[in-house]
Design goal:
Helices cover 62% and strands 4% of the residues. The chain is mainly alpha-helical and 242 residues long. The protein has one domain: Rhomboid-like (Rhomboid-like fold), CATH 1.20.1540.10. A three-stranded antiparallel β-sheet has the order 1-2-3. The chain is globular, with a radius of gyration of 18 Å. Mean pLDDT is 85; it is low at 4-25 and 35-39.
Length: 242
């Protein structure tokens, strides 16, 4: 599910903060999603560590049991394409597909896990572990729902797997939490503010999704992760104000 431009553009590293805006940024983010700042300042926060382990174990099991793992736990379409018959859709697949990855390309899981750690660690520290896990899994399930809906609209779908829906939700949260923090794109090496990076990424996924290009990437699922993440952050913000 990882987008090529996401692999290039989202393989960004934080280049620095706009110090003048940090206080205001954190105040606004607190109003949306923050409950309390956890004491854990380790390089790999607890939830991200568990997610990395879970994805790694699932990937290893895929190597030994590819058929059962992907048949039972990948997100199967509600409607099969003409001439194909995939395993049936099962409700738990809306969660489990987010822990499987394409075994033909090691880059799929490496990229998703790198982005999960690179962008997610500060979001977990900001939200707290419990709320971060809720947010991440909401993005994964939301991405899966959008993927199923798109399959129904176009008349058929294909099996989907990958953590990209949750990762794209983390991109969105990062852009909202640190909008003026600069990230450095690797190819090309262009610095830009996180908020512009998120907007550019969303527009790219939208344009590719509507272009009809069959690139084997679930572009609308990526957008679904961002959409459900945004909706949850706004919901938390309204509850906090009330």
């Amino acid at each position: 599910m990882a987008s090529p431009v996401a692999e290039v553009a989202a393989a960004a590293v934080a280049a620095g903060d706009d110090n003048n805006n940090q206080t205001d940024i954190r105040r606004r983010m607190k109003q949306q999603i923050h409950t309390r700042r956890p004491a854990d300042n380790s390089a790999i926060p607890d939830v991200i560590f568990l997610l990395l382990i879970a994805n790694g174990v699932a990937y290893a099991l895929q190597q030994f049991f590819p058929g059962p793992m992907e048949g039972l736990f990948a997100l199967q379409p509600l409607k099969d394409p003409p001439g194909y018959e995939f395993p049936p859709f099962l409700p738990w697949q809306l969660i489990t597909y987010g822990f499987l990855h394409d075994t033909r390309s090691l880059m799929h899981i490496l990229f998703n896990m790198l982005m999960l750690w690179m962008f997610g660690r500060e979001i977990e520290r900001l939200m707290g572990p419990r709320r971060f896990l809720t947010y991440y899994m909401t993005c994964v399930v939301g991405a899966g729902l959008i993927q199923l809906l798109v399959g129904v609209i176009q008349g058929w779908g294909v099996p989907t797997l990958g953590a990209s829906g949750g990762v794209f939700g983390i991109f969105l949260a990062y852009g909202m939490a640190f909008p003026n923090r600069r990230v450095m794109l690797m190819f090309p090496p262009i610095p830009m503010k996180a908020k512009y990076f998120v907007i550019m990424l969303g527009l790219f996924e939208l344009s590719i999704g509507f272009s009809g290009v069959n690139n084997g990437i679930a572009n609308f699922a990526h957008l679904g992760g961002m959409l459900f993440g945004f909706a949850l952050i706004r919901y938390w913000g309204r509850r906090r104000r009330q």
